[in-house]
Design goal:
This protein is mainly alpha-helical. Helix content is 75%, strand content 0%. Helix 7 packs antiparallel against helix 8 and helix 8 runs antiparallel to helix 9. The longest helix has 20 residues.
Length: 217
Amino acid sequence: MCKKFIGILFLITTIVSCNENNTINSDNNKSEVFDYSYLKDINNLDIDSLYSIALSGFDDTLKVEKLLSTYKLSIRNRPIRIDILNKALKLSRKINYNTGIAKCLKNKGLDYRYKHEYLKSIKHHKDAIKYFDKSWDVNSRIKNLNSLGVAYRRINVEDEAIKYYFKALDLSKKEEHLKSMAIAMNGIGNAYIILEKYDSAIKFFKQSLELEKLCKS
């Protein structure tokens, strides 16, 4: 606990220092500044300062990841900065970073879903698939498939939703990712309810519940 507090304090000090000086040196431009696991629980972050830090340095995969982290932090520290996500996507395409392109498209799909623009959401999640096929980030690939299932359920296309939930489930099993397995099974159960396949729904809900217990969710 103490170690985590020290880490958070370091990150806050770095960000404040960069904001006050309006400059940044190479030591401060480390990836630790964008450790999402620390920063996600901090309120009232200066997103503009983080964005400035992310934009410094070379156009490489690390810069893309910094931009993506900054975008995700803006979701908790409104307004949501779609311009940062678009910048990350543009840079990912420029340097042919398939994982970056895939993650950006996934996030754009989520953004459209939250805006209730489900067809645009589906388009971006499906566009992301071909880049995830060439990506090392299997966990994000699984999340994209589950999100695609959710988007199809929002427009009541249950058969397509089930198809992508099962793809997410199969991949989750290979990776032994219990939480993603639970999410996929829960989605399948909900889709089966709409299709009035109640026995199948109960089966998947029970399996999902057992996995949630294992995850202590």
